[in-house]
Amino acid sequence: RNCATYASSDLAQQAFLDKGGPDKDKDGLDPDGDGFACYWDPTPFRKVRG
Questions:
Q1: Cβ atoms of residues 19 and 27 within 8 Å
Q2: Rounded Cα distance, 15 and 48, in Å
Q3: Neighbours of 37 (CB within 10 A)
Q4: What confidence tens digit (pLDDT) does each residue in 1-50 have?
Q5: CA–CA separation, 2 and 33 (whole Å)
Q6: Basic and acidic residues compositional bias: what residue ranges (predicted)?
């Protein structure tokens, strides 16, 4: 599966984490190697945490 098969980057990120995250990225969901799937942006979540 690649990024286009997910309805959103949030869903892709969840699947990415469920399958082991960057250490086990067999599906190639982290093409840029930043540890986040399909260009998922953690900024909104970081703002909530303060």
A1: yes
A2: 22
A3: 26
A4: 689 999 999 999 999 999 999 999 998 999 889 999 998 998 888 887 66
A5: 14
A6: 20-29
Q: How many residues does the chain have?
A: 50
Helices and strands: H and E segment counts in the chain: 2, 0
For residue 36, give the nearest of 50, 48, 46 by alpha carbon: 46
How far is Cα 46 from Cα 31, in angstroms, rounded to an integer? 22
SS3 of residue 4 by DSSP: helix
pTM: 0.78
User: Which amino acid is it at 7?
Assistant: A
